[in-house]
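pinning this so it doesn't scroll away 📌
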Amino acid sequence: MKRIFLILILSSIALKASAQTDSLMVYIFLSETCPICKSTTPELQSLYSDYSSKGIAFTGVFPNKSVSSIETREAFASKYKLKFPLIGDPEHALTNQLNAQITPEVFVVRIKNNELIYRGLIDNSYIRVGKRRSITTAFYLRNALEQYLLGQISNIKSTEAVGCFIQK
């Protein structure tokens, strides 16, 4: 029953996003307890602000059922001022479908044909867990979205996400 409810929510989000002829869905796997997730929220909100009016939808996905609830997701959204939808995936339906392993990890999916455009890092601000760069030099998610809007194929299809493991 929970899986059906999740699919209905995702279908509803995708339908809203597909009001444009061709659009993207950005799934961002997050955890309320992951320090990297917490530190990337300003960039995520900035991306949402920049691209949500251009046919690109964003959804935060919280797969760790042992720490995530509606209340913790609402508190996370409030604390970090996130305006895009946040959903739980306690049964790992979407997590398994996309093979998500890490939080934060992003998946950019073209809704029209369910094509994976990009998977991985938001940017290169972290070298590894506990080791942050002094200057972010690569903006992978932003670049993938820009290239899509320009009608180009992203030159980087995937990067290896850095963060906290999803508990399965």
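📌 and the second one:
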Amino acid sequence: MRPFALTASLLLLGACASAVPPHDPGQAWVELYTTASDLLMAEKLDGERLNDGRYFQVPPGAHELVTRFQFEVPGGGGMNMMAEPVQRTCEIRVRYADFAAGQRYRLEARPLVTSAQAWLYDGQRNVLARGKVLRCGTF
């Protein structure tokens, strides 16, 4: 039983560390970024669930991106700062009308007390769109 468990664990770790596919020059590439202690994952592109949450690759034009952002709130977000931190999850939607083929974009998120903030940047760090928090909770 132990060899099976070890093999299964190694396969799961390998899947997490697998390389991101090559960038298709006919599409726009959207990199996801947050601090190392938090987690930002791609969830949906134009209403369709994605298989790989590490990035978005989109055809030119208008698109709606939905991400899942997880972060810790010290003291559970209440008045008792000695309480254990609580893991919060926010769904954030970003809409942008002018994705261009071959261009790289960066979607950044950060916590804002018990909610979140997100921005979409172009390659020159110009803000193109701001994320809308759809919901936050401990889900």
